[in-house]
Structure formats: structure tokens, C-alpha cells
Amino acid sequence: MKDGKVLVGVIGSGFARTSHLPGFRACAGAEVLAICSGTRSNAEAAAQQYCIPHVVSDYEEMMLIEELDLIDVVTPPYLHHPMVMAALEAGKHVLCEKPMAMNSREAEAMYEKAEDAGVVHLIDHELRFNPTRKRMKDLIDDGYIGRLRNVALATISNSGRDAYSRRWSWWYQQEKGGGMMGANGSHQIDQLRWWFGDIDSVCGRVLTFVKDRAMPASCEMRPVTTDDFNSFLMRFTNGAEGMVFLTSVACHTRGSRIEAFGDEGSLILEGDKLRGAQKGQDEFEDLSVPDPAESLDGILPNIWSRSFVHLAQHMIDAIRLGKKVDEGATFYDGMRCQQVMDAVRASCEQGRWAATDAASLT
């Protein structure tokens, strides 16, 4: 650290430029010292915008900058494992974008390496830091709904409804880790685990409806090898049952809705709005919490960017104070999320329920 500030190196200049860089700039005690992109001109543009002194085009070169305390990996999933392992080998704290890895085997190796290194490690599941979602967590832990019986989660979008609405990119290439399951499903699985405990087994479908997409600068079509729809049932270790429905190819957008039903009450979450009712109540009450990040300059007005500010501040504080993080999704959580996703895919391939434990996925 320099002058009490955690020095950050960011790998990636896409999502990082619109969310992570402004998020770190809003954090007390943080300074982005270096940025890396495989396309150097993109890194240079981000460096100029955010006054970042070091620009590199090779992540291994970034690891040689001794002053760096924290490496933030904001790249497509196929690059997460090598970049995170290099950062851990260099003794850096690590924040990794979701999904954690390409498969459970990679995720397990990353988790074990991080634990052995004794560093602070988090996955960018920023929704855990959204104030209303944290309120929901507190209510569940305090017994507001009693014992969970059922939970239903649906995210319905039309962002990829046809071959031209979203053009072909790494997001549509299986070998690079794209697809709806990793992009959105990982967030939803992490939230459900956080609120209700671990997931024991799943039964699901992982499908592709739009099978070809146009190239970014032409009408040339390329095949899609990733999913744009998935749905699955789940069994929690506490005996509760859940259902998840995710699509990016609907005709109309409905957003995200989560409904949790226990033996003492119910909670319904839509975006930043939380409503609840307990046994004996006829009307649902508003339980939402305002987000102080809404008033910050330079932060995009969406739940992802606002929530990232809180995640980044928590991680920076933990590093500065030399303690383990007590909130957020650690590499262990990222590994368990990966195992659930792999089990959903295995279930689809095998046409049966699949366990989420590591032994069943080997």
C-alpha cells in the first residue's frame, strides 16, 4: 500500500471501464495504478479517462508491478483461471469477475490456491451488496418467512431475441465461456445460496433458441454454441425446493422477480423493490431500502454499478485492515456456484437429477 491506499491493477477494458473503474474511483482508500487489455489502445483510452499511470497489454507484465496490492480480473471466463493463478502466484489479493471459471475443476484449483496464498479473494457477485437484497437476507435470517418451503426465480429479457438484436461475440462461443447460464445464472445461483443455504441437487434444461447471429459489422452469420435459455429445479440441503427460469430471447422484457414462501411468511423481490407479508397479514408491505450509491457522481444508474461500489469498498477496507472479508462471495462460493452450473448442464445432457458435489461432477 502507498499512503494508506490499496493499489489496484485492472485487467480488462470493457465492463471494467463502465463499472469497475468508476467504482474504485468512488472508494475511499483505493487507487487504480495499472490497467491491462489485450487491445492496448483500449487500455490507453481507459487510462486517459481515469488518469491511470501504468498501461500494459500482457497480464503477466502487470504481475511484475510490485506495488500492486489487488488484481481485478474483468475478462471473458476462459481467461479467469490463468490470470487469477498468476495473480495468486505473485501474492496479490484478487477480485474475479463471474462466472468464476470454465468448469468446476478450474474453480477448485483457484479456490485452493487462494486459500494457500492467504489473500483476500472475492467473486464479483455484487448483488450481495445491494442494500435491499441485504435487507432480504437479514429478514430471512431473523425468521421473517420462517422455514423456507419454496422459492421461484424468473429473469425474462428480450435482449437477444433475434439474430441481429445482439451480434456475435465471445458471449456466443462456448470455448470462451459465454452464455446465459454464466452471465445471469451464476448471479441467481449465488443469491439463492446466500439467502437460503447450499443446493444439493438440480434438474434442468440448457438450450439455444437463436442458433446463428450476425457479425458486428456485417450480415455474415456465425453459429452460436452457448445457451440463451435455461431452467432448472433445485433441492436445497435444508429440504426446500426451488425453481429458476432464465431467458434472453423472450418477445418482451419482464425483468427479474424472486418469490420466497416459508411457513411463516412470504417475500417478493423485483429489482430494488422488496415486499413482504407474514402470517395473518392480508397486504404486502414495502421493505425496500434506499441505496446511498444512487447519489454518487460518475456511477451508472443501474443496480450492477451501484452494488459494485459497495463490494469494492468492502474489499478495500478488508485489505487495508488486514482481515478476512465477512461479506461477499469468496472463491469458495464461486466454486460452489460453478459446481451447481456444471450440475445443471450435466442434468440436461443425462436427462436426470444431478448432484452438485465435486465427486459427482468428475
Account of the protein in words:
This protein has 362 residues and is of the alpha/beta class. Helix content is 33%, strand content 25%. The chain folds into 2 domains: 6-127 and 303-330, 3-Layer(aba) Sandwich (Rossmann fold); 131-290, Dihydrodipicolinate Reductase, domain 2 (2-Layer Sandwich), CATH 3.30.360. The protein has 10 helices and 17 strands. A 9-stranded mixed beta sheet has the order 16-15-14-13-7-12-11-8-17. It has a 6-stranded parallel beta sheet with strand order 3-2-1-4-5-6, sandwiched between helices. The protein has a two-stranded antiparallel sheet with strand order 9-10. Helix 4 (80-89) runs parallel beside helix 5 and helix 7 crosses helix 9.
Task: Provide tags for this entry.
single chain, 362 residues, alpha/beta, Rossmann fold, Dihydrodipicolinate Reductase, domain 2
Q: Biggest sheet: strands, sense, closure?
A: 9 strands, mixed
The CATH topology of the largest domain: Dihydrodipicolinate Reductase, domain 2
Helix tally? 10
Instruction: Report the end-to-end length measured between terminal Cα atoms.
Output: 41 Å
Low-confidence parts: none
Helical content stands at 25-40%
Class computed from helices, strands and strand pairing: alpha/beta
The number of distinct β-strands equals 17
Query: Architecture of the largest domain, CATH level 2?
Result: 2-Layer Sandwich
Strand fraction equals 15-25%
Give the strand order, joined by hyphens, for the main sheet: 16-15-14-13-7-12-11-8-17
Q: Give the mean pLDDT.
A: 95
CATH top-level class of the largest domain: Alpha Beta
**Oligomer status:** single chain
Rg over CA atoms, rounded to whole Å, is 20 Å
Counted up, domains total 2
Overall shape: it is globular
**What is the name of the CATH superfamily of the largest domain?**
Dihydrodipicolinate Reductase, domain 2
Task: Return the string of H and E elements.
Answer: EHEHEHEHEHEHEHEEEEEEEEEHHEH
